[in-house]
Specification:
Blueprint (H helix, E strand, L loop, with lengths): L10 H10 L9 H13 L6 H13 L3 H10 L5 H13 L4 H12 L6 H14 L2 H13 L6 H13 L4 H9 L6 H13 L3 H13 L6 H13 L3 H13 L6 H13 L3 H10 L5 H13 L3 H13 L6 H14 L2 H13 L7 H13 L3 H10 L7 H13 L2 H14 L5 H12 L3 H13 L18
Helix pairs in contact: 1-2, 1-3, 2-3, 3-4, 3-5, 5-6, 5-7, 6-7, 7-8, 7-9, 8-9, 9-10, 9-11, 10-11, 11-12, 11-13, 12-13, 13-14, 13-15, 14-15, 15-16, 15-17, 16-17, 17-18, 17-19, 18-19, 19-20, 19-21, 20-21, 21-22, 21-23, 22-23, 23-24, 23-25, 24-25, 25-26
The chain binds one DNA strand of 10 nucleotides through helix 1, helix 3, helix 5, helix 7 and helix 9.
Pfam family, one: PPR
GO molecular function: RNA binding
Protein name: Pentatricopeptide repeat-containing protein
Length: 466
DNA sequence: ATAGGGTTAG
């Protein structure tokens, strides 16, 4: 409209345009942001601090890091707000340490960091798991007198709980907040769950409800992960009810957490119901369904779900593929699994990593297609990793394939000589095939090398990973 | 006129 009337937009107009069209689907706004950027270039407004910082924020929101750094460098004299916007954008990006680099550039240039800068650097610190830096930042908070300020404390709590600084330090910060808000409570609950303290997190939530703090969708998502970890269907259902009552249940992220909770608490029917009732799905929703069915041994349903997802135009990512492959592997659906593995690179452009390959080796191995499994490992150049070879070795044990078993065991011994597994598995295989002399040789090698078979403890809980 | 804290999938 402005352009049609012959009126020239100013910097104010442009920065307003960039901030108005924000919200959730910022990646869809990329084209629009570029148009505004082009106008700014034409009008010579890129050096303007307001336009520049709005452009940085816009490109950060749609995930275009290159453009983000590009527009920042065009700003003439970045003020503290420009630096803060840029530092925060870095902290949210995949390369969080860039935030710290930016901070030092800012200080070298004579800029003075403030409490907004501090919060962003804390965020970067949490993502980088740097407790040492985090504690220095805590000291800095005291220095500038924001040690009991809510936003600063919230960021400090997250930092302590994500960087392994101990629950006690986080709780201390929480107790020192003059006015804790819902974010403070959520930071504690989420952090406790992440530290394996789901019971404490649940207790914290109860306490929060008792003091009358009003929960929101973010908070309920964290609470759900606590009850999922506790496999407490009853409490999970209660949270689901609260989400429905408060109208939060239309949120996709919360819906994902609810259906995940139902799977983890053993009710795939409820999970399916929630999935059906959700207003919108994303990749996470679909992946959670595939994962859930797979865990419940419903491999067919997992595959159907995967197919429906692709047909519906959703783009599966590497986690989705791992989920569907592992469902096939557990359910013994060999050819379907092979097909999906093939289309992963060919149709979806996702390069299989070691876990995908290990999954497929397991799938082929257990179906007795041992040579195909060996070919796969060699083709994928996974020699540097013994994981796939171990999987093949155990399949050889099941199918009595001594020769291939020896080759696989040899690979494991070569790559990770400290492991006792291959010696034990192989010697048992030789015993079953009555190759007694080989068995004794192997046992002898086990004794001479530094490898010792761990003593078996019949009462010791065996973890799934072994 | 531009800025802050918390969330989901193996």
């Amino acid at each position: 409209m402005l352009r049609e009337d012959g009126v020239m937009p100013t910097g104010t107009t442009l920065s307003a345009l960039l901030t108005v069209s924000g919200g959730d689907a910022a990646s869809a706004c990329r084209g629009f942001f570029r148009q505004v950027h082009a106008h700014a270039v034409r009008l010579g407004l890129c050096s303007n601090a307001f336009v520049g910082s709005a452009l940085v924020r816009a490109y950060q929101r749609c995930g275009d890091a290159d453009a983000m750094f590009g527009v920042f460098e065009e700003i003439d004299e970045p003020d503290v707000v420009c630096w803060n916007v840029m530092i925060d954008a870095c902290a949210r990006s995949r390369r969080a340490w860039r935030a710290v680099e930016m901070l030092s550039r800012m200080c070298r240039g004579g800029g003075v960091a403030d409490r907004f800068t501090l919060v962003s650097i804390l965020k970067a610190c949490s993502r980088g798991h740097d407790l040492g830096l985090g504690m220095q930042l805590h000291a800095w908070a005291w220095k500038i007198g924001s040690e009991s300020e809510t936003a600063t404390c919230n960021a400090l709590i997250t930092m302590y709980l994500k960087c392994g600084g101990g629950v006690h330090s986080a709780a201390n910060v929480f107790d020192g907040i003059s006015e804790p808000n819902i974010i403070s409570w959520t930071a504690m609950i989420a952090g406790l769950v992440q530290n394996g303290l789901a019971m404490e997190a649940a207790g914290f939530y109860k306490h929060m409800v008792r003091v009358g703090e009003k929960e929101n969708d973010f908070c309920l998502t964290s609470v759900l992960s606590a009850f999922s970890n506790l496999a407490s269907l009853e409490h999970g259902k209660m949270v689901h009810c609260r989400a429905v009552k408060s109208g939060f249940c239309f949120d996709t992220i919360l819906g994902n957490a609810i259906l995940d909770m139902y799977f983890k608490c053993g009710s795939s029917a409820d999970a399916q119901f929630v999935f059906g009732a959700m207003q919108a799905h994303d990749v996470v929703s679909w992946t959670a369904m595939v994962v859930g069915y797979g865990r419940h041994g419903e491999a067919r349903k997992a595959v159907e779900c995967f197919r429906a997802m692709v047909d519906g135009g959703f783009k599966p990512d590497s986690i989705t593929f791992l989920a569907v492959l592992s469902a096939c592997s557990r359910g013994g659906i060999v050819d379907e699994g092979l097909n999906i593995f093939r289309c992963m690179a060919e149709d979806h452009g996702i390069k299989p990593d070691r876990e995908h390959c290990a999954c497929l080796v397991h799938l082929l191995g257990h179906a007795g297609r041992l040579n195909e499994a060996e070919t796969l490992i060699r083709k994928m150049e996974l020699q540097l990793d013994s994981f796939a070879w171990e999987s093949l070795l155990s399949a050889c044990g099941i199918h009595g394939e001594v020769e291939l078993g020896k080759r696989s065991a040899g690979k494991v011994m070569e790559l990770e000589p400290w492991k006792d597994g291959p010696y034990v598995l192989l010697s048992n295989m030789c015993a079953e095939q009555c190759q007694w002399r080989e068995k004794e040789t192997l046992r002898g090698r086990l004794d001479y090398s530094n490898v010792r078979k761990d003593a078996a403890l019949s009462w010791f809980p065996v973890s799934e990973a072994n």
